[in-house]
Amino acid sequence: VNQVANLTLVSSACDMVSTAYASAKDSHPYVRSVCDAAEAGVKSVTEATASCVQPVLTTLEPHVAAASEYASKGLDKLGETLPLLQKPVDQIISDTKELVSSRVADAKDAVSS
User: Fold this and answer.
1) Domain that includes residue 34, residue range
2) Would you say residue 36 has pLDDT above 90?
3) Domain identity same for 74 and 103
4) Which positions ≥6 away from 25 have C-beta within 8 Å?
């Protein structure tokens, strides 16, 4: 999970979502109260679940470690194959706009000629 979260694409997307959430939360007192209530609910459910799941996780720890190692190797390989994962969302959007604009211009030139 940490390895996925540290991918530039994922971390920049999380930052964008976090900024949008904070902005929405600050936009109106009613939105803030609903968000605060939802956050409190998620926090209490998470705490309750964590205490119940801990004994199971302890038992499954060797299997989780093996799966984690396998997933880590897969993510490393995916990162090599898809360099896009190492770019921030803003750059991907900018590159995509540039590519689409270039293709539209090429198509426009082809049609007009």
Assistant:
1) 1-81
2) yes
3) no
4) 31, 32, 35
